[in-house]
Amino acid sequence: MSIKGRIIVCRDYDDMSRRAAEFFAEYIRSNSRAVLGLATGSTPVGTYKYLVEEYRAGKLDFSGITTFNLDEYYPMAPDHTQSYRYFMDTNLFDHVNINKANTNVPDGLCADPKAYCEEYDRRIAAAGGIDVQLPGVGKNGHIGFNEPAPYLVGGTHLAELKDDTIAANSRFFDNVADVPRKAITMGIDAIMNAKNVVLLASGKGKHEAIAALLSGVYTTEIPVTLLRAHSGLTVFCDENAYNG
Ligand code: F6R
């Protein structure tokens, strides 16, 4: 293995979710003003569930926490049931004592995406940067919506989704034609500049991406491989993602 960080191979999805949640819970307990970078999708649902349980058990306080989500479809209304704002509210924010004003999810209806993206990066900088960033990973190796490409963009930007990402995400929509073709996403800079990165991967479908991360190559054609250079990386993956 040749990553700078560490990899924790968990028994299954539930074990991965519990251990990743423990990592976040410990971090929040040691830094009550932490700035967290968060993701949506299937993978972090269990982690958020365990964090809500810890909160309900009186073991976690989110009142001083600030969050920045990686991405949001564009265009997408925040109250749409497939918006990432809706996902975050229903999976985490509505169930803990976080101040919603301190939760940032890109605005899928912003009129001027370029200006909005610059503003999103300024907000991250003003918060002091991200302490712990949680990315999931796409089957094609994307992180956030930084899709495989000959080059990647540093700052937050409006990205075109790849056909395979649209196909993968169509499981959440009635029809593949309803999946937005664009998304606002944090760029590689915000992810790489996070003090800690907690990458989650579950299931055989993620094996190729995890194998590429561990293989020793860096390529923007498999964006997750760039995380090999991050010394604060912790990968929580299950045996299926690790072994294929
Ligand atoms: C979501 C995000 C995406 C997902 C990735 C994996 O906020 O940034 O990169 O993490 O598409 O999605 P799941 O977890 O549904 O397999």
Could you walk me through the main structural features you see in this protein, from its secondary elements to its overall organization?
The structure is a single chain. The chain has 244 residues and is an alpha/beta fold. It has a single domain, classed as Rossmann fold. It contains eight helices and ten strands. A seven-stranded parallel β-sheet has the order 1-10-9-6-2-3-5. Strands 4-8-7 form a three-stranded antiparallel β-sheet. Helix 2 links the parallel strand 2 and strand 3. Helix 1 crosses helix 2. The chain is globular. The two termini are 16 Å apart. The site of fructose -6-phosphate has 13 residues, from loops.
Regarding CATH, which class? Alpha Beta
Give me the number of helical elements: 8
Largest sheet: 7 strands, parallel
Low-confidence stretches: none
How many β-strand runs? 10
Tally of distinct domains:
1
Structural class: alpha/beta
Instruction: Determine the oligomeric state from the structure.
Output: single chain
Q: Characterize the overall form.
A: globular
Helix content: 25-40%
Rounded to an integer in angstroms, the radius of gyration calculated over CA atoms is 17 Å
